[in-house]
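step=encode ok
step=design start
structure_in=
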């Protein structure tokens, strides 16, 4: 019995903690029962020692258990252990995946000008917005949903479809809206722990033109300029590109992003890539590749101002679609070089781009596509007011011009664009942006069968929802 008593006492301390539903009174009752059991063992040990004629061995005192006053826990809860911290939650694979997107709803109204025209004469139209025309109303310009995430410490993925693509010739030439089209589908492989150097594989933006690289959700003007966007219409292609961003540049871009500036996105201060060269979602038609290079660098010039300058260039051979069906059997030279400069608004800013080169263009005299020179660009001024009764707002003014072919259209028609746009963007809350703009346009229609240039005045509005 002497040997069993310490074991019994020790075992009493290993009893599992009371259940959540137990009360303080029940705990006290269990303690009293334990004391009574110990008292009985004392008496039994004393009787045994007396019968044997030996002295009574001292008995260890009963353990004292103090019950602190406490609130009775509610049913369904557990009594937390003061010494055992809750185990850390293990990261799941879906914790590294993010879902976001934006929607742009537009309304364009031609208040004066060449809304309509006879056959063979240019009408007021834009290669960027099908909502500019006769008998138009509300249109969805973009409905984007982005799924992106990390597959590990060195690999990430990015998937973006667009739900606002239009398809023509569905029913006796009728145009249908709301088709799904793939925009981006790529993954990045980071070659260093700091993620300064990455390789991008898949369908992604071609690094030509600062404005082309900037997301449409982040751009101040409603559309990209004809001159820069004509180099890579739809901005994307399938290929492989390497990007590198030094720590100094990354720090400046991160600070500008936190300040709410509209950057072009961190595609790298330096980029070098090869692509198919036929354009987004188009089948490759020759063995040549598009080779492209980009360099951009931000400079802190004092007073909180940042000036970013750079350039890009590419060489390619492309076979445009032809009126008779299919693509041209001839691969035309398609080469450009461009420069850009951006003074981020603080509160006044400026932005400009220009490019020169040569590319396919329809020649009306020869009635065939040939390689011709091209040039054009834009100049933009903007201001940024962070706080006002209506929230953040940014007024802007832009002038653009372009002379050259539009290779994404059938027969690569020549564009002759001169346009002035005045607008203002309101952002009362981060999830909502409203843009109001006036535009004076002089444009050649992107159809070699229509001659001359159309003119007109437009009122344009866009409501953008970010989610």
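sequence_out=
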């Amino acid at each position: 019995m002497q040997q069993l008593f310490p074991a019994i006492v020790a075992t009493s301390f290993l009893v599992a903690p009371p259940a959540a539903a137990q009360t303080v009174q029940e705990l006290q009752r269990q303690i009293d029962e334990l004391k009574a059991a110990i008292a009985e063992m004392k008496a039994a040990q004393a009787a045994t020692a007396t019968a044997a004629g030996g002295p009574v061995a001292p008995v260890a005192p009963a353990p004292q258990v103090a019950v602190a006053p406490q609130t009775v826990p509610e049913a369904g809860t557990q009594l937390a252990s003061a010494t055992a911290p809750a185990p850390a939650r293990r990261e799941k694979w879906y914790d590294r995946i993010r879902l976001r997107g934006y929607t742009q709803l537009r309304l364009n109204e031609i208040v004066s000008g060449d809304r309509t025209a006879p056959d063979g004469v240019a009408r007021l139209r834009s290669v960027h917005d099908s909502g500019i025309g006769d008998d138009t109303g509300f249109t969805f310009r973009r409905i984007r949903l982005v799924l992106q995430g990390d597959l590990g410490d060195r690999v990430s993925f990015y998937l973006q479809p667009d739900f606002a693509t239009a398809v023509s010739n569905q029913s006796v030439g009728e145009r249908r809206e709301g088709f799904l089209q793939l925009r981006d589908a790529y993954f990045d492989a980071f070659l260093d722990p700091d993620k300064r150097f990455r390789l991008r594989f898949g369908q992604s933006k071609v690094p030509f033109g600062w404005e082309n690289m900037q997301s449409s959700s982040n751009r101040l003007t409603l559309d990209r300029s004809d001159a820069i966007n004509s180099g890579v219409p739809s901005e994307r292609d399938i290929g492989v590109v390497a990007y590198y961003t030094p720590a100094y540049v990354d720090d400046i871009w991160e600070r500008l992003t936190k300040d709410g500036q509209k950057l072009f996105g961190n595609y790298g201060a330096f980029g070098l890539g090869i692509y198919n060269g036929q354009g987004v979602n188009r089948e490759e038609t020759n063995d040549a590749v598009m080779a492209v290079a980009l360099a951009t660098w931000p400079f802190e010039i004092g007073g909180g101002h940042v000036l970013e300058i750079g350039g890009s260039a590419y060489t390619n051979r492309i076979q445009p679609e032809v009126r008779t069906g299919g693509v041209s059997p001839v691969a035309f030279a398609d080469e450009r070089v461009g420069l850009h400069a951006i003074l981020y608004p603080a509160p006044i800013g400026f932005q400009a781009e220009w490019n020169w080169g040569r590319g396919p263009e329809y020649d009306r005299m020869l009635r065939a596509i040939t390689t011709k020179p091209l040039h054009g660009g834009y100049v933009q001024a903007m201001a940024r007011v962070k706080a006002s009764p209506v929230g953040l707002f940014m007024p802007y003014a832009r002038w653009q011009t372009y002379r050259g072919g539009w290779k994404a259209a059938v027969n690569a028609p020549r564009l002759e664009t001169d346009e002035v746009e005045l607008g203002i963007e309101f952002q009362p809350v981060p999830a909502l942006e409203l843009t109001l703009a006036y535009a004076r346009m002089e444009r050649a229609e992107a159809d070699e069968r229509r001659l001359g240039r159309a003119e007109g005045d437009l009122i344009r509005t866009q409501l953008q929802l970010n989610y």
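step=design ok
step=annotate ok -> Confidence is low (pLDDT under 50) at residues 1-21, 54-82.
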